[in-house]
Write a structure and sequence with these properties.
The chain has 15 helices and 18 strands. It is α/β, with parallel strands linked by helices. Strand 8 and strand 9 form a beta hairpin.
């Protein structure tokens, strides 16, 4: 589909409340450290009773609310008390002193950081431990599967209470387009692309990543998209790019650190090579929506995926698809471009999930059937026949375009009949294409299906003509005149 253009224009009680997972982990470690120090008792030459009372008071305050003004650490302490992993100091029945805080003996270990259990300090190499790596939260952090399940359950409760889902956002070709400086075309240089990226304009969308020798272009509408989506979703960046690059792009997209905080996942965080997975995202698969321009990296989570139309701004990004937007001095429109379109889709998904699930408990709802049902409404009532679109030695039912049309709600078949509504062809000279013209059926290019898929709405058929159609119509007109 051609792009619409215009002139340049630890414990995890809750991530859904804007809490930084790294801060919460820090609270876990401080909690464990404070209780561990108390459990060891005082060495010879311990402080006076008055000093001990002050220490006890400080310990209680630290356990209850490390970091005044933050509720996260209170929740950390409360959760550990509920689980029996730490107990508050109690009054001694005889001496009136405070008993030492107790730490539950490991194993089982709930997690390791830097190769050491963050509760008991045991070396991970000495343990039979499998778990989920969370390097994007804290370097060297790995949580046990049971701890991850517990934290995910807690996160789901908080998300639902806040009426939020999870939104996973790819970077390249989805939210931005980047190119290396030495790949800038001569035409782009003549148009001053590099100098435009260096201007100190707060509203600019072109940026130079000096340390990486790259240019980055933000997709039109991206800032408004993030602002509105953040009201409905807990958002994560998930890219196959390197961590340093992902962090730099996150700063461009979220300079105030409002949307993503530490929730920036890169290729080094993937648990399976060349694949992205929701196993490193706290929460449930049933609440996650994924925006990505590449389907094959989400093999285990295709039902969560909304496939994005690829954003190609720079010449190096579209060498095989014609002239770039930058060279044409054009861009996607903000009003009805890809991100504005998908924002409307996300709003519908959110509404259906939270407001239209009457009779179903909120905790048992699943966003994936919502996505599937909305997608099937796009081409509902359409019956398609393909004419020489697929290789002759392949089964058409296995082809991407056929499957895409079915996912959009269309019925696909191999032969024409009166119930067929559309014939999809790459040239108007085929037998089925001529049949479509004769019987006044829609004859259109396969790009129509792609456009419907990206736009989540049935697109005007007349915008996707088949090559050779005008010539054929002209010949038919001449034949009709001669016959008369």
């Amino acid at each position: 589909m051609s792009v619409a253009a215009e002139s340049p224009s630890p414990s995890l009680p809750s991530l859904s409340e804007g809490d930084d997972f790294a801060d919460i982990l820090d609270a876990e470690l401080e909690l464990a450290s404070a209780a561990d120090s108390a459990s060891r008792g005082e060495p010879p030459g311990s402080p006076s009773d008055d000093e001990a009372e002050e220490d006890e008071e400080d310990l209680v305050l630290e356990l209850d609310a490390v970091g005044q003004g933050s509720h996260k650490r209170c929740r950390v302490a409360e959760q550990h008390q509920d689980q029996g992993t730490a107990t508050r100091p109690e009054e001694d029945a005889i001496a009136g002193s405070v008993k030492d805080a107790q730490i539950k003996i490991c194993p089982p270990h709930t997690g390791f950081i830097g190769g050491l259990c963050y509760i008991c300090g045991k070396n991970q190499d000495e343990e039979d431990f499998t778990g989920v790596p969370f390097g994007y939260i804290a370097e060297g952090l790995r949580l046990s599967n049971s701890e991850m399940d517990r934290l995910s359950g807690s996160e789901v409760k908080n998300l639902l209470r806040e009426r939020k889902l999870v939104l996973i956002l790819d970077l390249d070709h989805t939210l931005i387009n980047s190119t290396r400086l030495h790949d800038i075309s001569a035409a782009e240089m003549d148009l001053g692309i590099q100098s435009a990226a260096s201007k100190n304009d707060p509203d600019r969308s072109l940026f130079t990543l000096q340390g990486m020798c790259m240019l980055t272009k933000l997709r039109p509408f991206v800032r408004k998209f993030l602002e509105e989506a953040s009201n409905m979703f807990e958002m994560y960046i998930y890219t196959m790019g390197f961590k340093a690059y992902a962090i730099e792009i996150a700063k461009l997209l979220d300079p105030g650190n409002v949307y993503f905080d530490s929730k920036v996942i890169s290729n080094s965080d993937c648990t399976q090579q060349h694949q992205k997975g929701l196993d490193v995202v706290p929460g449930a698969d049933s609440l996650a929506v994924v925006l990505d321009d590449t389907e094959y990296v989400w093999q285990k989570h295709k039902e969560n995926l909304i496939l994005m139309e690829r954003y190609h701004y720079f010449a190096a990004s579209c060498r095989h698809s014609g002239q770039s937007l930058s060279e044409l001095m054009q861009d996607e429109r903000e009003s009805d471009g890809a991100l504005a379109t998908i924002l409307d889709v996300l709003k519908r998904i959110h509404t259906i999930f939270f407001d239209l699930g009457v009779g179903t408990a909120l905790s048992s709802r699943d966003v994936r059937p919502v996505i599937k049902r909305m997608r099937q409404e796009v081409l509902q009532g359409c019956k398609l026949v393909f004419s020489r679109v697929f290789p002759s030695d392949c089964r058409p039912q296995h082809q991407i375009m056929w499957k895409m049309a079915e996912q959009l709600g269309a019925v696909c078949c191999s032969e024409v009949d009166p119930s067929v509504t559309h014939v999809v062809a790459v040239h108007a000279g085929t037998e089925k294409a001529r049949w479509a013209v004769k019987h006044k059926k829609f004859l259109l290019h396969p790009r129509w299906i792609e456009a419907c898929n990206y736009r989540w709405h049935r697109q005007p058929e007349e915008d996707f003509p088949v090559p050779g159609l005008k010539e054929d119509k002209g010949k038919e007109k001449v034949a009709e005149i001669a016959h008369l």
